[in-house]
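Hey L., structure's done. Input below.
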Amino acid sequence: MSDAASQVQADLPPIEPNPPAVAAVPASIAAPRPRPRLWPGVALVVLMLLTIWVPAWLDAPGMVRYMCVYFGPMIAALGVAVWWLFFSRVPWTDRGLSLVGVAAGAVLAYFLSLLNVPLLIVYAVPTVLTVWVLALAATWFIPWSAVRLGLPAVLLLTWAAYLCVRFDGLYGELYGTFSWRWSLTAEQKFLAEKAAIGTASGPAAMTLQPGDWVGFRGPRRDGRLTGVRIAADWNQNPPRQLWSHRVGPGWGSFAVVGDSIFTQEQRGPQESVVCYDANSGKEIWAHDDATRFEDLTKMGGDGPRATPMFHDGKIYTLGGKGRLNCLNAATGAVVWSRDIVEDSGATVPIWGFASSPLVVGDVVTVIAAGSGDKSMSAYDAASGRPRWSAAAGKQSYSSPHPAKLGGVEQVLCTTDAGVTAFDAAGAVLWKYDWPQAMHRTLQPTILDDSDVLISSLTGTRRVRIHHDKDGWKTEDVWNSPALIPNYNDMVVYDDAIYGYNADSFVCISLEDGRQKWRTKAYGSGQVLLLADQGLLLVVSEHGAVALLKATPEKREELCQFQALEGQAAEGKTWNHPVVAHGKLFVRNAAFAACYQLAPEGPPSIGK
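Output:
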């Protein structure tokens, strides 16, 4: 080695055998933890809300909308759980802690709230998921160490909010109303105020008079009133309120005989048939049965469903749990009583028995939807003795319907299986098979001596019935998806059909079933035809009453007023209106009211 090289090597520092390792940078300051990945959660919640809201905007059928509001939150909850566990970038400990908060809240709501599981799914789950994502989005700039404990608490409190409320019912638009759980229900308010209604005396005996309204949707059960003309300008001749007061829960309508009206309502543990004075609203008599139907789904409401029927001095009623009564119309005394559950072997339907009794000849018929040959049941109208029963289907919220087809008087029974026609002795005349997975609710609509309108979850059909030497035959004329009613019966005037398609009021052609016009102005209610004037009296489920011209050209509303002022929040109006003896009778699950309608005046000069 040269002297120069030796000198350079001598100047270098000595080489250590094991040089010290470079100090590690603490992980906490080496790189910031990635913020939570929010966009999948936001996308899932937005899709869930669109699934809930868009079908209503598009006026989708009621069953489609219900499936969306029910299954949409469940699918979204599963998606949010997957995102949170595997793609959120949140520390694993905090992922588990937040899910524990959600689960704990769900358990508390299940055991301590007044809501059942379907209601928690439809209302609480979307709220919790939305709050979850919004809370993360609103705190994205805050260090996770500050957010990690607050998020589970927020989720738990969101669930806890549902411990403080009571669900009051579902409207036709598929939105619900809530009250504080400690507030009085409409029924409790009625029971506290019932004594203030007062009492009145009635006639010693009752006979049918011209202008009476014998029962459900009138004498032919078609919601058609003839022989009456009213003042159609309610700005100049407004309906004058005669009385209004609370009633117990009930979803039927009225029978009107002279100055007496009959309806059914729930009064605490008693299911009552009540006779009121038509002019004052005071109670004449009440018959009580120690039974109560409670809607466990909370979608409809508690109480009886059917409308009383007057016949030969008697009132026939069917309660929500199957008590069939025949009462003296003047006094309320029991003539006879039957239990159709015991007679037919049927089980009480999930939304109660809703069949309004029909008296034809000397028998009274109801739809029990029992097993075997007990779908339709007929009893001796005078004694209550069973006369006959027959098979027709297993699910129905419809009522027996009188018809005259092919010149033959018959009674139609509408069920999940379709429509079956019986003669007075219970023999089957014809059947129209149109099965569906669920109950049917509507009445068939008789158009003439041969044609009938029948509805289902998919639309409305016009069916032609005729018979020859080979027997009865049925054939389809048309099928229309433009009219898919839930529980709202339809009326026919001239060449058009008027009724509810979900929460839209529509007009469709009688000739081919095509839509003429539709409106969402009335929610989801009921309609009555004033045939002599070509007027539609439409009652919205919010208690408003409107008069429309029955014309297929366009919706033409003449006037409107709030018949149940300020009361819609306590009782949705699904009950059918009645016009009898110049008076309009309306009711819902909480209130009843009567209005005097001015008669149609003489035409103006020059017209």
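The first strand starts at residue 165 and ends at 170. Residues 62-86 form the longest helix (25 residues).

-- N.
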